[in-house]
Amino acid sequence: MDFLQKSSRGISEVSGSAKLAFDGIIFIRGEITDEAADEFLEQMLLLNGENRERPIRVLINSPGGSVRAALLMYDAIKGSPAPVQTCCVGNAYSMAAVLLAAGTGGRYMLPHSEAMIHEPGLGSGISGNTSSIRLISESLMEIKNRLGRILAADTGRSEQEIEEALAFDHFFSPQESVKFGLCDKVITFKDILEG
Q1: Which of 17, 99, 139, 140 has the fewest CB atoms within 10 Å, measured from its CB?
Q2: Is 113 a catalytic residue?
Q3: pLDDT of the residue at 131
């Protein structure tokens, strides 16, 4: 959907995403890929370049995706001079839940949204000899440990508690997410509109 935007140069047509970004809102939607992470980083750079004090609102509705791509987004959130408010507006599964918990200016969920955390998986198409499989396994264990440390820091839980929660697909209602430390508060859509 396109909108008409007034500026000192007249009226121009802008996309809905561009209009929202102009208002300090970024979406993380769908699978988290390298392309999605690059676009997110670009938007974070632009918004921080415009105003380092105005909060950036990140709305999340994602099944997760690439660990590497999500960690780039995580670093952008944590390194942003502007406070970053994260809000789950549907699902924040897997790495998207890590991003939800990363918010530096408030972490929120809508009343009927859901979060889920779990161990990193192999993905599809993994094959190779015994040595290759062992290296892949060791790499996955290092990623699991890193994610455990990240989630422990962001939720206030111990690494042991996080390890137990990551052992299976652990789904959280908004109230359970607040109790676990994935978010701070359950809000309404009206709260999002009022910023």
Answers
A1: 139
A2: no
A3: 74
